[in-house]
Amino acid sequence: MSNDDKHNKKEFMRKNLIERQGEAKVVRKIVMITAIILVIIVGIIGVGGYFYLNSALKPVDAENKTEKAVEIPIGSSVSGIGKVLEDNGIIKDARVFKYYVKLRNESGFMAGTYELSPSMTMSEIMSALKTGNVGQEVVFKITVPEGKQLEQIAGIIAEKTNQSAEEVFEQLNDDSFVKAMMKKYPSILTDEILDEDIKYPLEGYLFPATYDYFSEEPTIEEIITPMLKKTNEVIEKYWAEMEAQEYTPHTLLTMASLIEEEATAQVDRDKIASVFYNRLDTDMPLQTDPTVLYAHGEHKARTLYKDLEIDSPYNTYKYNGLTPGPIANAGETSIDAALFPEETEYLYFLATPSGEVLFSKTLDEHNVKKNEHITSNNN
């Protein structure tokens, strides 16, 4: 190759390199400009979103204190409540309300008719929605004590309504009614309550508390919904621990009901829970009398030996493990004990006539206490 050819080749390569460097500069400029534009767009969106959210969270009209009757229907979701509030001019944006409620982890909103105004803050609105039926007088109350069974609760409801206990109990066990309640509270009313061995699907799910009612003749659904809602709220508080222990709401309420039925005012439920868990761990039957009486469908002061012969999956003298479902409603103390039992080595407990509960580690020790405190024959 001649010197001229070498020179021309070098010159061509130099020019080509210069061109590529120029192209690279152009590309870098384009990338930089694009990035700057994107940053500006994101910034504009972010700032705009911030100001929009900030505005949406403020009162619709701080000067307008005119109150308006706003009705929140029974069973309304957070989205549904937000739409009602937006439609009535109480908040600016239902979606913002929904996300604000989730961010704040707010719950416990109640159905009712509220006197609300456009001047109310988001915090004031949420606080009002937790009181229930603002501006209305309570027509009657229903108190559901701890440890009551579904049939007993039906009787309590019947006393406040124009229906008989049998009619109420029948509706509480109606298949379509139960499935409607399952759709309303799917996190607690799962398919487990429809197991073929379950006596009554809603047994144990009507939380013990006092409930206010604001109409003369509420439907059974309107009466039951607050009870299920309360159960749902209580269970939600324990959800993380339930997942850690691989408990479903059904199994938790089942164990809690056994604790509730064996507990007295003087006893530590945590210790009763420990006995049940110790027995389960050693594959011993729970042998708790209330389950036998539940299998018989009776309420008696004493379980007789002949009662123990009933062939029922609820009979914990015949079948190991938990009952198919709850045998009564449990208070939060028993639910807490079911998740956080005391650590003991007890395998037996005995309720004395005075209400005291005595705990034992061995059968011999238990029998000695039984002979000392239970004097009447159990035939």
Automatic annotation (TrEMBL):
GO biological process, one term: cell wall organization
One Gene Ontology term, aspect cellular component: plasma membrane
Transmembrane segments annotated in the record for this chain: 30-53
Membrane topology reported for the UniProt record: Single-pass membrane protein
InterPro entries listed in its UniProt record: MLTG-like
A molecular function (GO) term: lytic endotransglycosylase activity
Site (Important for catalytic activity): E262
Keywords: Cell membrane, Cell wall biogenesis/degradation, Lyase, Membrane, Transmembrane, Transmembrane helix
Class of this enzyme: lyase
Localization per record: Cell membrane
Family: Belongs to the transglycosylase MltG family.
PANTHER family: ENDOLYTIC MUREIN TRANSGLYCOSYLASE
HAMAP family named among the record's database cross-references: MltG
Protein's recorded name: Endolytic murein transglycosylase
Species this chain originates from: Cytobacillus horneckiae
The organism's taxonomic lineage, starting at the top: Bacteria, Bacillati, Bacillota, Bacilli, Bacillales
